[in-house]
Amino acid sequence: MNAILEIIETRNLYSHLILFKLYLDSKGRINDIYNGNLDSEISELLGDEFSKEYLYNAKQWLNSKGYTKYIGSRALSEYGRDYLESWILNFEKLESKDKEILKEKLPEKVFKYFGIAADAYTVGTFIQTLQLL
Q1: What domain count does the chain have?
Q2: Mean pLDDT of residues grouped by 10 in the chain (133 residues)?
Q3: 76 shares a domain with 100
Q4: N or C: which end of the chain has fewer CB within 10 A?
Q5: Full domain range(s) for residue 106
Q6: pTM of this prediction exceeds 0.85
């Protein structure tokens, strides 16, 4: 059971990294093809924990759900945009105790990956910054 949960959690991490990057690059527009290199950017972000197999599984899952389009999950679909926006908006409904957890520091390479200024230095301020985009 734990192995299955680990696979699901890891796939979700990779999937959300891809969706965030596509969303921010396209400014929320659908069908805009991402011209960067998602594979190398995610690899750089995750470092030694990066796995091509998990990345492939995430891309395959995103395509099967209809959240992305084109080979290699290179553009957001309408479903993908709506899913990510809804997921982000759910953070507004967090309780105070949960918001305390979000005050953890984020590594600088997270800001580089998303192209966001480093003034969003905690999980909470990072999410607030994403909501403003």
Answers
A1: 2
A2: 87 93 92 92 91 95 94 91 90 72 66 62 61 56
A3: no
A4: N
A5: 94-133
A6: no
